[in-house]
Design a protein that fits this description.
By secondary structure, the chain is α+β, with helices and mostly antiparallel strands. The protein is 67% helix and 9% strand. It has a four-stranded antiparallel sheet, with helices on both faces. The chain has a two-stranded antiparallel ribbon with strand order 1-2. The chain is elongated.
């Protein structure tokens, strides 16, 4: 009977260990990646503690009773940790201001401190749970409080990120939905049918979704520039077109890039690509995204309903490019040509038509620049 109860938890632990092993193939580059590691580790810890709590339930002797109290107390202490980490993880994906992110983390931490305090009080009041004379776990009247705390935290989190809703991409939105739905289903079934272990295996499915939709996607960035790739650009464009959300794209092509490779070598050529990619990321808003399209071609996706936005960004890029050339101390001057296309949110536009429009405009700009240099 015990093995039937914990089978699903064992499989969940194995899945999480597999994700951790796969993640270790890639270097951890930012706080978001660190948080995802902690999310996996916290879920593994809770699953293991839950397995042991069932293993000692009903065990005879004083040591069995003590272990039952310890394991179930740990379960309640850790109860809010995974959701708090998910909230911090989403903050890293959505909120650019570090002070705001840190302030929100302090709120999550304070809520976890409250859970620890409640668990300590339970040792004297048996408000959350009790272990009866047969060393069997029995839920207390306060047990639903912890489920309510998770729901309350998640609802408040969703309310507080409304001002940032434009920054929530389709992939992040899907994972947030998984956090909302899957553990709730598991919690309902686990409450209705005592003995089922479903909440944390369901959270394992959430981790799997986060790994596939966000972490794995981010690990597939361009290896030279660390920018998003062409396939990611096309997916993002399709998403915006399907939602009838206006946007623009700026196609950028480096001028005379081949001569940099031929004269100074491919390493210097890679450095030039990195300089341009850094320039783009520093010149755009958080709502916009830069992609390496192919070779020395780049695309900036501008998430704005204003068709003049690309022109403003292009002017900012040219100003920043001039500053960079003056400070980079390179034996060459970087320059680029660009072209725009705009989707107004109506119709069912093809992404390839929009890319073709921007590409044509870019080559017109390149020919114009060549004619200027000749005269």
């Amino acid at each position: 009977m015990l093995l039937m109860r914990i089978d699903l938890s064992i499989y969940a632990v194995l899945v999480l260990f597999f994700l951790l092993i796969d993640l270790h193939k890639y270097p951890v580059q930012n706080d978001k990646a660190y948080l995802f590691h902690f999310i996996l580790l916290s879920n593994i810890l809770i699953l293991i503690v839950e397995i042991f709590s069932w293993a000692v339930d009903g065990m005879t002797g004083n040591s069995g009773r003590l272990l039952n109290i310890i394991f179930n107390s740990l379960l309640y202490v850790l109860n809010l940790v995974p959701l708090s980490l998910w909230c911090s993880y989403f903050d890293e994906c959505i909120i650019s201001n570090q002070k705001n992110r840190l302030r929100r983390r302090k709120i999550y931490l304070s809520l976890n401190c409250i859970t620890v305090l409640i668990v300590v009080i339970n040792l004297f009041t048996e408000f959350l749970f009790q272990i009866n004379a047969e060393n069997v776990f029995i839920r207390g009247i306060g047990a639903p409080l912890f489920a309510a705390m998770n729901y309350l935290l998640f609802i408040l989190y969703c309310i507080t990120i409304i001002p940032y809703r434009k920054l929530i991409t389709g992939r992040i939105y899907q994972v947030i939905l998984n956090v909302a739905i899957l553990p709730a289903i598991g919690g309902y079934l686990q409450t209705k049918y005592y003995g089922l272990i479903l909440v944390w295996p369901m959270m394992t499915l959430v981790c799997l979704a986060g790994y596939i939709l966000i972490e794995r996607e981010d690990m597939n960035r361009d290896t030279v520039t660390n920018l998003l790739t062409r396939s990611q650009l096309e997916r993002r464009m399709k998403f915006l077109i399907n939602r009838h959300q206006p946007f623009s794209i700026i196609m950028i092509d480096l001028d005379k890039f081949k001569s940099i490779n031929d004269t100074y070598g491919h390493k210097e050529g890679d450095d030039a690509l990195k300089l341009i990619s850094n320039l783009m990321e520093k010149s755009i808003k958080q709502t916009d995204q830069a992609f390496r399209y192919a070779g020395d071609e780049f695309v900036i996706l501008v998430d704005s309903a204003d068709p003049k936005s690309p022109s403003h960004i292009a002017n900012r890029l040219m100003i920043n490019l001039h500053k960079m050339n003056n400070h980079a101390k390179k034996p060459y001057m970087l320059s680029f040509s660009f072209g725009f296309s705009f989707f107004d949110g109506s119709g069912d536009e093809s992404i390839y038509h929009l890319l073709s429009e921007a590409d044509k405009a870019m080559y017109q700009n390149k020919n114009k620049n060549k004619n200027k240099s000749i005269t």
